[in-house]
Amino acid sequence: MPYQLIDGKNLSTQILNEIAENVGELKKRSEITPGLSVVLVGDDPASDIYVRSKERAALKVGMVVKLIRMPWQSSEDKIIEIVQSLNNDINYHGILVQLPLPDHVDQNRVITSINPLKDVDGLHPFNAGLLAAGEPRFIPATPGGIREILLRTNNDPSGKHVVVIGRSNIVGRPVSNLLSLKGKGGDATVTICHSRTKDLTDICRAADVIIAAIGIPNFVKGDMVSEGVVAIDVGINRVNAPEKKRGYMLVGDIEFESVSRKAAAITPVPGGVGPMTIAMLLSNTLYAADISRHE
Ligand code: GUN
Predict the structure, then answer these.
(1) What is the pLDDT of residues 131-141, one digit of tens each?
(2) Can you state the angle between helices 8-30 and 141-152, rounded to 10 degrees?
(3) Would the pTM of this model clear 0.85, i.e. be above it?
(4) Whose CA is nearest to atom 1 of ligand 1?
(5) Ligand 1 center from residue 55 Cα (angstroms)
(6) What is the 225 CA–ligand 1 centroid distance (Å)?
(7) Smallest Cα–Cα separation from 166: which of 200, 205, 192?
């Protein structure tokens, strides 16, 4: 069966164009230029690439961006001090602290120090709680991107059995909450699986949609899915590939070769979910700027 290859790059370009238009309108209407501030601690090459992509995309849609780089040794208190200065800076409507943070820093304490009205990552417990309570304000970028992918490729999750593999606060848990909400883009029946799940294969075979966010390369194999599944791959894993110039390649949590033979639709890695996350972050930043007018 031919499968639909989901082009996340193309979808994200569409959304970024929509955002650019809305940024222009907001500037005209209220003279507010949406501002995004990004805090990057340390010099992890992967985080550096992500942060620079976010910066480039934000500038392209007409936002202002402030990137604050801090040394890896920075103390938790110093990072929180920077976050608090951004909480008080009216030029920046969104604050993102790039994760992961160094091991000596309590990630939760840093996230909780962000003003929930500027938490464009949607990771503050206040915003996670609003989503769980069915009143979402900032939807974390990856779950939001997945919902857009499903809606914009005619794979509406309504009434479908969605199996989520992974229970992280960034992806697994919020995407489970999001897709089971009442209304457009929701109404799915969601099963959330993790490392302790028994009979994972049986559960995956009963899925209409599989969302893999477990961080294990090629974890979901063709024999674990049913014909016609929609496969959404959140994984970005570096695996050694001596034959490549860089010495590594990126693979997802879904084994593309075997799963694509049974899937109705599938996201590639790279070029699937990844590009969508930046678009959703900027959508949240636009929203943060818009609500700042009413504070
Ligand atoms: N690192 C990987 N994904 C994310 C994300 O969605 N937000 C932040 N802040 N850091 C990340």
Answers:
(1) 999 999 999 99
(2) 110
(3) yes
(4) 99
(5) 14
(6) 28
(7) 192
